[in-house]
Queue: 2 jobs
Job 1
Amino acid sequence: MAIAEPRFTRDLPEVRKRKLIEATAQCLAEFGHAGTSVRAVAAKANVSPGLVAHHFKGIDDLIVATYGHVGERVAEALTAAMDSAPEDSESKLRAFIEASFKPPVLDRDLLAIWLSFWSLVRRDPGVRKVHKKVYADYRRRLEELIADITAARRIKIDVHLAALGFTAMLDGLWLELCLDPTTFSRDDALRIAHAWVDDLVAGGFRALGIRRG
Amino acid sequence: MAIAEPRFTRDLPEVRKRKLIEATAQCLAEFGHAGTSVRAVAAKANVSPGLVAHHFKGIDDLIVATYGHVGERVAEALTAAMDSAPEDSESKLRAFIEASFKPPVLDRDLLAIWLSFWSLVRRDPGVRKVHKKVYADYRRRLEELIADITAARRIKIDVHLAALGFTAMLDGLWLELCLDPTTFSRDDALRIAHAWVDDLVAGGFRALGIRRG
DNA sequence: GCCGTTGTTGTACAAGTGTATAATAGCGGG
DNA sequence: CCCGCTATTATACACTTGTACAACAACGGC
């Protein structure tokens, strides 16, 4: 007679939390925000509903943690792409673009998580703070690259505005591509983004002059 | 003794539906997607819960109808701005930009509706179809303007890709400005968008050459 | 080997959910 | 003025939700 296997296994809080976060990501991808409840997450993680409440304040807290977790993985993917690119800033910026439009960044499941998180930004000040920091970091990295590229070529533009416009364009392309991959293609997005860099390097965007005052 | 006022008033289905749609918009703005239920909408419209089921299939159907309704109002606002602009395409494109970054288009409440709608796109084919059409119309209008502007100036670029990039940038700026108006300002967004047009008119975006093959 | 800590379960309960149903009543047509 | 149509209500029901609670049991320390 086989030894009865334990009815459950104990995990360190840190480990269990991670498992619950991954279950939340799967629920958001599979059922959307509306179908992602404490119980749904618990079921997906093969765990009792009470355990979720034991580790997290509620489903919103869990979604924020999920955003933080996958957000770090996205940042890692982008950083890895830049690190494996040549040393010059233009190459790194282009590597950033390439990484932005392929998995794990270009991923329908990721959009589901992002949408849920965005819907929390408005009412929860803590969430708002996290969102602000994530986007500030995101923009700062691109702004530094753009500043490098333009400085080396003696191009005088407002790099802050340029970075804002560039990130907005990347975000928009990413969002619309995740929502509906049939209207335009990944390659279209890549061509558009690379063309932006081409024009930047060629001294375009003269209209984005240095900010006055 | 005063005449007892009627306990409720009858409306034409069309009128009642519109009231329910407006109540839905308010609920999405006030409570978010999670807090927008059949009952919440009914309460907001001072109506019994059963009535909602009588006019709509469910809360998803109501959200789609709300998206359609406010989407039309947005389209009207943008069209009105273009109509009151001078006849040339550049002026119309700039009027489009101006209208995009002020109410009723730039509106946190509108984003709440958009987010809910986007979260439905993935699972509901009907919703996906509506989204596709709305965005196709949106892009086509801008593509025509861009085509006009470049054709008049003998500028050879892929207007389709240019329109894709421009709409993505506008969407991204709009989204991020609605999410967090403190990181950058409406004026920043306007400067960025107008600078894009400046560069287009000046013959920039040479990198967006005519699509090969 | 036992014991204590605590991660985990199962259950219970109140509140909220969508929806079906019969009864009500506003309002236009005769 | 009454009548019929149907928009609307009120209620009921089955289900899901979040959370509290006591009991359980896995696993490390002694």
Job 2
Amino acid sequence: MVSVPAEPRPCSIARTLDIVGEKWALLAVREVFLGNRRFDEIVRRTGAPRDTLAARLRTLVGAGILERRPYNEHPARYEYYLTSAGRDLYPVIVTLMRWGDQYLAGEDGPPLVLEHHCGHQVTAQVVCEACGEPLRPTDTRPLTRGRQDAASVTA
Amino acid sequence: MVSVPAEPRPCSIARTLDIVGEKWALLAVREVFLGNRRFDEIVRRTGAPRDTLAARLRTLVGAGILERRPYNEHPARYEYYLTSAGRDLYPVIVTLMRWGDQYLAGEDGPPLVLEHHCGHQVTAQVVCEACGEPLRPTDTRPLTRGRQDAASVTA
DNA sequence: CTAGTAAGTCCGGAATCTGGATTTACTCTA
DNA sequence: TAGAGTAAATCCAGATTCCGGACTTACTAG
């Protein structure tokens, strides 16, 4: 009965998902990107339960993704702003959006279309920052640093 | 006591998160990208509870992201493969990874480094497919199609 | 005959999520 | 000045989900 040594990967994806890997967290961030910064507005736009949203906003503020700024005292009222770390979640949001546009849009197309300042509709593409080429799974492989047990990347 | 009309946005991000907006779902997909296709291996690498993982794999297969192929009969054994829809989640995965590398890596840097076939380490960047320029939140705005209540995008 | 492997399922307790009502401290309108 | 409205939560109790560990099934290898 030798138990197999469980060893979850140390992984940036897992760590990130511990913070934003839940529906309401990311939808709250989406709303702030769209300019809606108030609690009730975020509740209304996302459909999240108030309790749950309050908890998520706390986590996001604690993680340094959102900043809670008072806009009124007596009674205390707050708005949520993206920090620079929060703004850096933009790529995550737009790639999620693109996937949904591709695979889950109904007959009348994507529910929200963004326009880039170049004049075209936004279609998010992920490229290698170094060479500018599109990043495809088959074109990358784990760089060996110590023991690596990942097999090759194939579909 | 006029109840405020709740109207969650129809949104590709929300729809996508209904499928993959949970830690274990995306980590399972990560493992398959890394070439680990078997149930026990995915459990071991992600640390997910077996029950939960089984449920997530079912969802992912149902959503057309993974494909379950037998590699053995008697006893029946299966492997999970990415469909093309699944491979299209690569941008989501690498942008999540980049964010974690930036904000959550410890002293010894990112736990996993990918090498692009151009020879450089992978740093995922999101660009506008049309003009190739980096996509920044301030450079995009919702294109009005019918009523839109999103304010401008500002930080 | 025993041990190991692989892909799950079953279980019961713990934690989390959910919608609705309530609270607090105002401002605005009749 | 009373009543309604606004905004950010919080409280609650029931429903759901998550979790880890044990178990099952059907083999193969020694």
